[in-house]
Specification:
five-stranded parallel β-sheet; alpha/beta
Length: 108
């Protein structure tokens, strides 16, 4: 199984923009398991998409919650991880993750 993790801790419209990528991966990789790290603004929308296997709500409060979240992600063996939202927290988590491929998107 190839684990794909995508950070979309922004709004629904941003997720819709990247949904073509997720659908394409799901179609072309029969072993794909797609996980999206979402914000509270788009969590329930993403959860209802049939091409997304898992949705994780990014912890918005509590320093220790965020540290534990990063440790959980960094401890998993991941095929591809991508920070599609361009946020520093997502980029740093991607850098710490044990992933075969890492994609970091930023506008700065």
């Amino acid at each position: 199984m190839n684990k794909y993790f995508f950070f979309r801790t922004d709004r629904i419209g941003d997720f819709i923009f990247s949904s073509i990528l997720l659908k394409s991966i799901k179609t072309n990789d029969s072993k794909a398991n797609i996980t999206v790290i979402a914000s509270s603004k788009n969590y329930y929308y993403i959860k209802n998409q049939n091409y997304v296997d898992n949705v994780i709500l990014y912890p918005e409060r509590g320093f220790l919650n965020k540290i534990n979240f990063i440790k959980d992600i960094a401890g998993q063996k991941i095929y591809l991880i991508a920070a599609l939202d361009g946020k520093k927290r997502s980029i740093y988590t991607c850098l710490l993750a044990k992933a075969e491929y890492k994609f970091l998107i930023t506008t700065k």
